[in-house]
Specification:
Elements: H1 3-17, H2 21-28, H3 30-38, H4 44-68, H5 74-78, H6 81-95, H7 100-114, H8 121-133, H9 136-146, H10 154-161, H11 169-176, H12 183-195, H13 212-215, H14 222-230, H15 234-245
Amino acid sequence: MSGENNSRTDAERALEAVTTIGAALAWFGEPMLGAAMTFAGTGISHLLGRRFQTFVGEIRERLERLEEQGLVSLKTLARDEAFVTDLLTALRLATQTHREEKREALRNGVLNAAMQRCPDEEQRTMFFRMIDELGISHLRVLRFLQDPAGVVSDEQKTAARSDVAGLGPEEFVMNSLPELADRELVSQIILELRNRGLLRPDYPGAGSRASLGMYLKRWTMPFGDRFLDFVTEPAQGAQRAQEGRTDDGQHHAT
């Protein structure tokens, strides 16, 4: 076997070492091991294992695809302590959720970490924690408020012109995201996004009203844009980042 094949084998072996059930249990600690033993034979332990193995397979497939494109090196990643920590963090969180949108965000976070599209280690730690702590609706609202003008339909814009009373901030979101029908929940989501520094502090508060035109701007903070890039598939994230640099200057408004 050639030296090149040997190094390739070593890289694959190292990557596999951090994507095994044993490594996962070592990372999760006794609570996870205890849960697996408690639910052994009930089908729950099988579900936990399936979540883990599915996520591992998806990550490996995408990393191998990126390597074929010359964008990452599995050999280098296998020796990168920070990347291994990011990978293990994502594996732990992916096993704890059944929500596919969260699992997708975690997968994309790992890929962006592998490509060093978010080079700050502390920021990656914060982003993974936010994926865990925020709900799917938080991500949907934040994406919408990053580019509401690109989402609001022409019909909504036409109807709003005759609405002299204006829109409340929750109503604006709910009109474009009909799956969010609870005004109080939307208000809390907006508050939490603002408190985490993801949403601009001048986004209209509860009880206020404004014309539709006042809402059709980018409401995300630069930190919020970076978070959305982190949870977005690398190719799409790069495109959105480019669009953000060529917009009308509202990207960095405060």
